[in-house]
Structure formats: structure tokens, C-alpha cells
Amino acid sequence: xxxxxxLRPPFEYxxxxxxxxxxxxxxxxxxxxxxxxxxxxxxxEPKKEEPKxxxxxxxxxxxxxxxxxxxxxxxxxxxTQYEKDNLSKRDAYLKLSLMIRGYVHEATGIDVExxxxxxxxxxxxxxxxxxMEEYYVPEFAEGNRSENRxxxxxxxxxxxxxxxxx
Length: 166
Known about the structure:
Blueprint: H1 15-40, H2 61-83, H3 89-108, H4 117-123, H5 128-140, H6 151-164
């Protein structure tokens, strides 16, 4: 019995398989070079901070603590005067407004004492716009529009905002 073996030619790659391989290798090399460039050569961009309103100055932490303590004591005294019926609701809100505006001026250097609520909202000072909304209506409205506002609650809100201020 005679057997014949015929050998087949080795597997031949077609030209498109080689072209795809070259393209994948080039893409991998490009991505590797780009990643290395970003890591080693590209300058890191500085962290962007929130834009501060004009005139903003950051007080030293020990000064801010003293300022906070002063205004919290003033608000507490104002609340006591109101509870003893020494002040009308509108006068109490006027004084609270002046205290909060004075605090913001001392803490940040921004003169908000003559700003309207709209101006303060445009400045973007965190918590200040909400706090001003708290006393804005009772400060400027007729007596009947401010009846639903509680001055003691407004004082507590103001003290809370001052304590959280950083």
C-alpha cells in the first residue's frame, strides 16, 4: 500500500490583514505617545477658584472668629430687646439688617450696606442672599406684610449663617 502525502503551502496572509495590523500598531503608538505627552510635558492648569466680588478680602481666621463672636453677641442682644418689647418688629428687622450687612463688610471687605437684594444676588455670596430675603420684606414692607415673619427665627437663622461663614 502506497500512500502519498501532498504538502500544502504555508498559510499566506493576505495584504489587507497586514494593513490592518499596521494601522492598529500605529494607533496604539499614537495613543501611547499622547498619554506620555500629557503626563510629562503638558503644564498643569491651576485650580479655578470661584470669582470673588470686587473688594473681597479674606480675613485671618483669628480675626474672623472675633468678628463672628461680636456679631453673634449683638444679634443675641437685639433678640433680647425685641422679646422685652423694647423694639417694634420693623425696627428690630432694620437693626438686624444693619448688623448682617456690617458683618459681611467686616468679614469680606465688600460694602453691602447700600446694596439691594438684587445686587447681593448678583455678587454670588453664598448664604447672604437667602439671609437677606429673610429680613428684606419685614424691613421695607408695611406692618401687615411682615406679620407672618418671626423675628426670633430670623435672628436664629442669621446666627446660624454667621457661624457657618468661612
